[in-house]
Amino acid sequence: MTKFEIRKYMKEKREHLSEELIKLSSEKMAENIIKSHILDDSIANVLLFAPYKNEPDMYIIHQVLKEKMPDIAYGYPRVRSDKKGMDFFRVDDISELEAGYMGILEPEADESKLIDIRCAVKQNQKTIIFFPGLCFDDKGNRIGYGGGFYDRFCDIYKDLSDKVIKAGICYDFQVIDSIENIREEHDVRMNIIITEKRGIYESE
Question: What is the pTM of this model?
Answer without folding.
Answer: 0.93
